[in-house]
Fold:
Amino acid sequence: MPNSYVGQRVKRTEDPRLIKGLAHYVDDIALPGTLHVAFVRSYYAHAKITNVDVSAAVAAPGVVAVYTGKDVAKVGPVPCASALPGLKVPDHRVLAGDKVYFVGHPVAAVVATDRYAARDAVDLIVVDYEDLPVVADVEQAAAGNGPVIHDAFSDNIAYKMTAGEGDIDAAFAAAERTVKQRVWHKRLAPIAMEPRGVLARYFPGEEELTLWSSTQIPHLMRTQVALMIGMPENKLRVITPEVGGGFGSKLNVYAEEALLGWISMQLNQPVKWIETRRENIQATIHGRGQVGDIEVAFKNDGTITGLRYNVIADLGAYHQLLTPAIPTLTGLMLSGAYKIPAIQINITGVFTNRMATDAYRGAGRPEATYIVERALDLVAADLNADPAEVRRKNFPGKDEFPFHTATGLDYDSGDYEAALDKAQEIVGYAQLREEQKKGREEGRLIGIGVSTYVEICALGPSAAMPAGGWESATVRIEPTGTVTVLTGASPHGQGQETSFAQIVADELGVSINDVTVIHGDTGVVQYGIGTFGSRATAVGGTAVFIAVQKLKEKAEKIAAHILQAGATKVSFEGGKYSVKKAAGATAATGASEPVYPVGEGPAGALPEPQTEGRTSLTIAEIALAAHLAKELPPDTEPGLSATYFFEPKNFTFPFGTHIAVVEVDRETGDIKFLRYVAVDDCGRVINPMLVDGQVHGGIVQSIGQAMYEEVVYDEQGQLITGTLMDYALPRAKHIPTFELDRTETPSPVNPLGVKGVGEAGTIGATPAVVGAIVDALAPFGVKHLDMPIKPEDVWRIINNDSNGI
Amino acid sequence: MKKAISLNVNGVSCTAEVEPRMLLVHYLRDVLNLTGTHVGCETSLCGACTVMLDGQAVKSCTIFAVQADGSSVTTIEGLATGGELHPVQEGFWERHGLQCGYCTPGMIMTAAQLLDRNADPSREEICHGLEGNLCRCTGYQHIIEAVEYAAKKAAGS
Structure:
């Protein structure tokens, strides 16, 4: 059957409510009698709390209650889902106990009748601190020296781990050449435009708690929050209304989510907390936060023979949901798009007096790609070879898939050379290199950066995931013919209300307008895992696709029964089941329209479909027959609905080539993009417009990391970049016009052939941008620069001024 | 303590008594229940709260409701007229100018102002005009194309 929707640039069904300002994010939901919560947060990075005086706050107008750590000692702990061998897990409660260990650590919660009163009362709470020495130096922490954050442990080393395959020592012993480079991945703030927020409502009679939370994982949150506050999971309902971006920062279970639920249960009133942007930068997880040494062993002809990465991961003061696991993902992807026979990662995860790091778009994989791509650039520079050619030399061929890496993965499918060829052709690579050469003679500083990335998506097989890696879907056809899809994925901007409807509408031969995709409500949707790790379409979309096939199997049996044809005698086309025609017969007609025009629906019971003498039935008529259950085959369940839980057998491995071209201004150090070409391969594409949007957004987050963004703490653990005034995000004027193209290598891992694209841009683009800037500065002997690369850094290099670098 | 204010919001007269410190955005959202205007940073850097105040795009998170006394305010809910989307709204839908949608109302109000002032802006002028609004999802390219679409649409009609 030809697709009407899949593969098309279908406009999003989500958009009308969003562009009219009629959508509902957490803070847009107003329940009568709602109380507002504001937090007292630590302004010390590490201190003992000697006293908390809440008396003035309690007496303040509008204040209903004040809670401190002592009141909520039994709530929690804030969960960590990673179970690495020997991992130290601090007991992190929802409010600080006798110690604070990062700036922003919540110390007390004020509940008041409105948000202004709550905020006023925060200032009336007096906390006496006795400051403690701050752990800010990750290398000291990794060496096991210096002050210790958690009394339960003897040092700040949370875990050490070594991974990889192949004889790495032999690779370096036999190496014809080696290069080594220290590389920083600075902390980044995810900055979803909608900060976090929670609304909690407890009904004491029913003993039911509902949490509206801005999260990517409603079901996982339900399980965890139920455990944290000690209530039956089936009495807790989590609803994610509209969610204003996540990027991993809402792939978590935070103290505030459990605390708000608990407070609502104490007060029997709805309570709401909406994070301020300052709180968001202080106390929502950060991303990245690694410093490590790359060592590469290679031959004189550019063949890579070994890669070692010794890394210290700055985990922050405690573990959020996946904190310790993120650096291990870096280890998994260290082979990049290359055949590297021996790879080793040595991770030391350390506690510091800062907010926890965790999953931020890419989550450990951008670090890996950056390391491998920087390594290839360093090898090229060492050999004075073209970086694109060094890459090409080390690619596995397209007939070598599934391709086993020395990090223990089996890449599903790929044709890396095709993506590189296409990107080089679009950008006019050979000519660009000529222009660059000529430009240099004229004093122009043009740089070309190439990144041939591969990423790991569709997270993931359950064996590799802490809490299940499958995804669920239910597809049902309602008595009046509309189609409802319940997905366990939890989209928050990715557009799956549209792309999943595209899949279903094509499979059922119905209009996309008759399909509604429901997500993000644990009271309505079967258990699901959520949206993260570029998994929603590859895993959740596949669940939807297979659920539709199950539904059609049943519909076909019912159709055959009603049409009085044998099971093999009906066919499905264009939304209709028809008795297969003898050769030369004319097409069957006469199907009725499923949806009643306004005002013309039946007054009472739905009329049975008129089946007498028919040779075809629409899927809607079959759904009605299944609902009325008067004419079903023997032993058939009434209703037309199917549920499927899809367990992927492997990850998927999208890939591509990004080429950035920049020019550096000799006078100011300013960096200007001349071109940006991205050729991505995310397998089969459901909606090219949405894929382009994902790629654009990812690249700009990469540009942010490469050139602007950095969470800065000083030696006292003070957060220096605490507002958007100090934390620089890319704006419209900072971006080039992206030239996008694709190759399409279907994944054999799922029947849709899709791979995932949510993180491609953030993974593939950073090394291309850094590579381009470094290349522009090659005439000054520059081989590597750490991100973010600012005009000031560039200016100092050009002017041979090392002050401050 | 409270002050009486009177505003025209989306063509409707609204009077209320508010604390002098109440932000315009909270008046719109909490008092009038016009929740399409969002708060993204409280320091006037993200632009999610942008509304039109007497025809000028302003950030409603850094203006008090009492300062808007006697003024006309247009919010995202009031931009479409007679059930017809504003060309900028249409452009955002047509060109996939939004993902999570949180910055979108402010972005649309700013873009509408931009086109009011310059009916045929260059790409550079669009980027400059949108400089006060942050988007973390789209990477801006589709937003720029949405504004270009709206400019063409408005010129054609």
Q: What stands out?
A: The longest strand of chain A covers residues 304-316. Chain A has three domains: 31-132+193-245+250-283, 287-460+650-798, 470-646. Chain A touches chain B through 59 residues (CB under 8 Å). The CA atoms of residues 202 and 265 of chain A lie 6 Å apart.
